[in-house]
Amino acid sequence: MIIQIIKKKELSKLPLIDVKKAFSKFENEEVSDKEKIRLTRELLNKVFWPFRSDKLLSIKNKDEEWILRKHQSSRERLGYYEELYKKLNIGETNVIDLGCGINGFSYKYFGKSINYLGIEAVGQLVDLMNYYFKTKELSAVAVHDSLFNLSKIKLYIHQVKGKKFIFLFKVLDNLEMLERDYSKKLLMEIVGLVDRVVVSFATRSMISRKKFSAKRNWIIDFIKENFKVLDDFEIGDEKYIIFSK
Known about the structure:
A hairpin with a 2-residue loop joins β6 and β7. Helix content is 40%, strand content 18%. By secondary structure, the chain is α/β, with parallel strands linked by helices.
């Protein structure tokens, strides 16, 4: 059934650990195998391909803004990248972008050459970013891996030298869809390995554009209790929290 699930083009390059976690949600349901496959695909699409554009499944010679506009999350951030990166005060810090989607295409908005490492589960997006990085000769690379491979994520972080700044833009909610409280486990393991971490959450529905009533106190309180909050602000339709060990 796992093989059947990943026959869909958009799911074909997902790490098996993520596919298996999604399948486990329905494995013991009293429904047909066909329905289990459908439900698993539906969940995986919700986690990894919300409001996707199929145009991102093939590499084309398009500029950064064209690409960023084809992904809902980055499109909403597009008018704010310069303000955001200035607010984050990246400086000479190396950026490690976990669950980066296509955020690597925002590299030019850093305003300077920095070392950038993006880690993303969707293989097609990794290929797309690496093609861009190579073409533009940027000090950047994308790695195809799952954020649930925690030992490997920590190894990637250790391999980056100098100051380190982790991005987790609109990632934690998606992790929770596959494993409850994994966000807390991930943060406890990685925050002490870097200088700063920033997490973000959408504050408005992508479809209705209505403000969310949920405040995400479950994770915000956890961050405040376990780490040192350095800044907390909203830009566009996103809330950002910067913190350290």
